[in-house]
Amino acid sequence: MLADLKCYVALCFSTPRRLSRSKISHNYRASGSDMGSENLLSQSNKSVNLRLSNVSIYTAEVLEIEADDPKLHVLFVPGNPGVITFYKDFVQSLYEHLGGNASISAIGSAAQTKKNYDHGRLFSLDEQVEHKMDFIRQELQDTEVPIVLVGHSIGAFVALEMLKRSSEKVIYYIGLYPFLALIRPSVTQSIIGRVAASNIASTALSYIIASLGILPSKALRFLVSNTLGRSWSATAVEAACTHLSQYHVMRNVLFMTMTEFKQLTKTPDWAFMRENQSKIAFLFGVDDHWGPQELYDEISKQVPDVPLAIERHGHTHNFCCSEAGSAWVASHVAGLIKNKISSLSK
Questions:
Q1: How many CA atoms lie within 13 A of 49 on its CB side?
Q2: Which of 42, 62, 43 is nearest to 52 (CA)?
Q3: Does an H or E element contain 325, and which?
Q4: In the chain, fewer beta carbons within 10 Å around the N or the C end?
Q5: Which of 22-36, 58-72, 221-235 shows the lowest per-residue confidence on average (mean pLDDT)?
Q6: Of 295, 250, 264, 305, whose CA–CA distance to 120 is shortest?
Q7: How many other CB atoms are found less than 10 A from the CB of residue 263?
Q8: What is the mean pLDDT of the chain?
């Protein structure tokens, strides 16, 4: 069963290809005058909250921190798995790096919740996009401050689709370790694609992984900590234990994967990116087959003025599974946002 569980984790976290150093990596850190960061300690001492949101009758988990006097609202979209509690440390750190001046909502994937609220319904990639748009319509429609979209992995694709459909209220988009196209599938991706495309295989794998849920909680945490999560934070281990051992979560992860692999054979919408390049930025990783060298190079060619950076500190695609990775990426995202706000105010 451990081998099957490791195979599953490769769905989002394995990274076999290396990016070149064709562009300089940047770790953006804003000065104390940006967005009131001089008041960091007084304004950013809130903790992230987890709640349920019923969006278009479907239930999702949402991490959020509400600023007392927000200057903008950050909406974060996770990768796949879309278990939002994996990103708790990232959301907390991002709020602090923004000096408590931005409210943050991080919405998980529909049906990838601790409890089976949607009774086994399976959601495609397109339906996850629409679910996030419904969240904006339902919960952010009356927001009076600008909105910034941030997406990780396939969440970068979802957030980019949201940018296409959103109003002028959305001023910026950041794609983290973006999975935007299947340019040249890796061996791991090919295996995952075949499993996800088979109803029998994906059902069986989901049952096998869910069977770990019968273990006592301490035993399951020990198993995850000493196999999959040797370098994981306590937050990531907890998220894996509470959610990935649920059959309905695994079935949705694999079903969404199947639809991703079908849809991402299409060429990215370069024309849209060129038209909106002032609103777009990307962070790539080293050895990341979800956001490979070929995609980095193609964006550089097709949309040459879009800011691209490469993270070279060893946090990799699964940055959210460690406190250090969460903190570094949060710092980078906050720097991009502060620079964007500063440029708009000139």
A1: 11
A2: 62
A3: helix 323-344
A4: C
A5: 22-36
A6: 250
A7: 16
A8: 87
